C-alpha cells in the first residue's frame, strides 16, 4: 500500500504531532478494561464492538503515553528529536523512510467510496490482519526494551500493556468475525515485520531509529484500527448514514 494523498496527509499530521512533542504533551489517562462488561446475550455483536473499541482506545492511550516518554526521557529524547529534525530538513527522505511500514502491503480502504464496496466481513478481515500483524513486532519491542540498559520502567510497562491489549483485541475481533460468519476459515497469512535485525543492532543510532519507526508505524495502524472499528460499529447501528463521514 503506497502512500496515497490520504496517507501523505496522515503522515504529515503525525510528523507535526511529533514536532509538538518537543514542546508540550497533553495528559492522557487510560480507561480500565473489564471483561465482565461484555454482554453475550441480546445485542452481543454491539457489545463486542464496544469492547473492541474500548481495547483499541486504551491501546491508543498507552501509545500516546509511551511516545511522550520516548520524547521526554533522557533515555531516548535527544536522538528521537534528532530524527524529527532530520525529517523536517528533508521531506523526501521522510516520505521514503516512513513509507515502508510492514502493514502498508495491505489493501485498505482510504475513502468512503472504497469502504462502501467492501463487505462487512472483509472489513473485519482487514482489521484482523492489522491487529495480527503487530503480534510479533510488539513481542520483540517488549523483549528489546527489557534488555536495553537504562530503559525506564514507565516505558517498558506501557509496551507490555499494549502487547497485552493487542492480544485481547485480536481475540475480540476474532469473536466478532465468528459471530458475523460462523465457521469462516481464518486467514493464515499476515504482513511480515522484517526490522528485527535493525531493532537488535549494536549501532545505537540504527537501533533507536528502528524503535522510532516501529512506534510511528504502530501509531498509524492503531489509529486506523480504531477508525475502522468505529466505522463498522456505526454501520451496524446506523447503516448508510456512516458513509457520510470521510475517513
UniProtKB/TrEMBL annotation:
Pfam families: Hormone_1. Residues 1-25 form the signal peptide. InterPro entries: 4_helix_cytokine-like_core, Somatotropin/Prolactin, Somatotropin_CS. It is found in: Secreted. It comes from the Eukaryota. Keywords: Hormone, Secreted, Signal. Belongs to the somatotropin/prolactin family. This is Prolactin-7C1-like.
Amino acid at each position: 500500500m503506497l502512500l496515497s494523498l490520504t496517507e501523505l496527509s496522515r503522515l504529515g499530521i503525525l510528523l507535526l504531532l511529533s514536532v509538538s512533542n518537543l514542546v508540550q504533551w497533553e495528559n492522557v489517562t487510560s480507561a480500565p478494561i473489564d471483561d465482565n462488561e461484555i454482554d453475550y446475550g441480546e445485542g452481543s455483536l454491539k457489545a463486542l464492538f464496544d469492547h473492541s473499541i474500548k481495547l483499541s482506545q486504551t491501546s491508543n492511550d498507552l501509545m500516546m503515553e509511551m511516545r511522550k516518554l520516548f520524547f521526554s526521557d533522557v533515555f531516548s529524547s535527544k536522538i528521537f528529536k534528532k530524527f524529527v529534525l532530520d525529517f523536517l530538513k528533508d521531506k523526501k527522505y521522510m516520505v521514503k523512510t516512513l513509507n515502508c511500514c510492514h502493514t502498508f502491503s495491505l489493501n485498505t480502504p482510504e475513502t468512503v467510496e472504497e469502504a462502501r464496496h467492501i463487505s462487512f466481513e472483509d472489513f473485519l478481515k482487514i482489521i484482523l490482519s492489522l491487529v495480527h500483524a503487530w503480534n510479533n513486532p510488539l513481542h520483540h519491542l517488549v523483549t528489546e526494551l527489557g534488555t536495553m540498559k537504562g530503559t525506564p520502567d514507565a516505558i517498558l510497562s506501557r509496551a507490555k500493556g499494549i502487547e497485552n491489549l493487542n492480544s485481547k483485541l485480536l481475540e475480540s475481533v476474532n469473536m466478532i468475525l465468528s459471530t458475523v460468519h460462523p465457521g469462516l476459515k481464518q486467514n493464515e497469512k499476515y504482513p511480515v515485520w522484517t526490522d528485527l535485525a535493525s531493532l537488535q543492532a549494536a549501532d545505537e543510532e540504527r537501533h533507536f531509529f528502528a524503535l522510532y519507526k516501529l512506534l510511528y508505524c504502530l501509531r498509524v495502524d492503531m489509529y486506523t484500527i480504531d477508525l475502522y472499528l468505529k466505522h463498522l460499529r456505526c454501520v451496524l447501528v446506523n447503516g448508510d448514514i456512516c458513509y457520510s463521514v470521510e475517513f
